[in-house]
TrEMBL record:
Keywords of this entry: Membrane, Transmembrane, Transmembrane helix, Transport
Membrane topology according to the record: Multi-pass membrane protein
Keyword Repeat: no
Organism (species): Vanrija albida
Record carries keyword NAD: no
Transmembrane segments: 125-144, 150-172, 184-206, 218-240, 289-313, 325-346, 353-373, 385-404, 416-436, 448-469
Boundaries of every Major facilitator superfamily (MFS) profile domain copy: 58-474
Record localization: Membrane
Superkingdom field: Eukaryota
Name of this chain's protein: Major facilitator superfamily (MFS) profile domain-containing protein
Taxonomic placement: Eukaryota, Fungi, Dikarya, Basidiomycota, Agaricomycotina
Amino acid sequence: MSPPSTHAIDEKQPIDHNEIKKLDNVIDDTEAAGYTDSSVVISPEENRRLRNRALKRVLPLLMLAYLCQALDKSTIGTASIMGWIENVNTDTNHYGLTSTFHWVGLIAGEPFCAQLVRYFPLGKLLGVAVIIWSALLMGLAFSLNIKIVFALRVMLGFAEAIVGPGLLALTVQWFTTTEQPTIGAAWQSMLGGNGIISSLLGFAFYHVKNKPNGLYGWQWMSITIALFSFVCGFVILIFLPDSPTKARWASEEDKVKFVERVRGNNQSLKQKVFKKEQAWEAAKDPYTYCLFLLAFSQTLIVGGINVFAGLLLNRAFGFSVTTSQLLGIPGACLGITTYYLMAYFIKLTGETCLMMCAFAIPNIIGSLVVLLVAPTNKTRGGLLVAWYMMQFFQACNPAIFAMLSRNSAGQTKRSITYAVTYIGWAGGNAIAPQIFQKKWAPRYKTSLCIHFGLYAWFVIVCLTTRTLLARRNKQKKAALKDVDGQVRNEHNLAFSDMTDIENPEFIYSL
């Protein structure tokens, strides 16, 4: 039996609920097959029990994977004020290129890795990826030639391209759409965890002097992080379940409940077959390009702020190297806090796009202060507060990926929207350091002026995206109304691997 025509939605015609109900046994999901039962009733108490099991067994491993990625990716950033630039015989422009080349590698790897997520066991895939990039970081620790550094950074980015789509896919499999913003904030908050750990390691290894055993302090720091990531890779490989139906610690009864618990997502678990019609829909859908622009615009700003944070504190504001390392810790803590604040306000208001607009305001104020106030002994404290305010915009990152995870369905389409969004994310990060040119150092006033235009552009894209999704929801809800005028949504097509546009029961999160 073929699914109901989606033309009914476009024409705002009522949907035959009885016809949809007959399709409840149509399971086009290779991972959920054999584990669905729409008659299962999950009580609030049972739902909490299942969620808590997932929080204890799955979320820590997602956080660990993202922490490793963040640590490995940012090692050169920490090393930049530990003598790395001088030891490699380079300058700040080449330093900025190390970040750009990393993101070029990630862009190249994203289309390939996003498809691997559909085909291979996710837990195994992530574990192997962590082990591979740990080896690459070890190579970076011994590289004193900038050309070799560039090559290794490209390979590191390619290997890390699996992390974003993999973690998003697991988030969708284990958690409901209302939980996903908080869960996404939790594992992405490891960017802040990385900031804390990197600052402490940078402070500690900066005191390693006179090249003990022939290595600089930043080299010992890189080796330490590489070994830590290597061990974590094996932990993830062994303990992270590939999906709810593959969790060794869950009973067969609980596996069914885990699957049914996310029925309301209308997003399926996994489908290995590549569907050309879904790929074509992804290419035509304006929402795909809205996601790209959101990710690209946001990282054009935060990518530069993150890469040049240490140099701003040290060379623009006048703090010492060790003080700059330690000042990164409260900044990272604030970043973590803003992630959870964003998730809280999204859950409270049901408004993701509007919250992202609101979180741009502290950054604009902080940037204005840094732009207009000259650094002196008296103003350094105020400039530091302004720099901390510039951490709020980072919280838009998990919000964007919550928009991606919650509003895209159909395994082939979702794999493509994941790839497109992460290419935008990586593209913004790749270009962002180039906005901070050496000729504008140390205060980078021109860079900050460019950022003001980017904030305005980001707000425009946010409001456009919200308008698009609100109009779609209005059409879908009109079509879902029954004879009594009530909106009925029983999620009977949840595991049919239909796209968000094809599925008349799919409602977008704004």
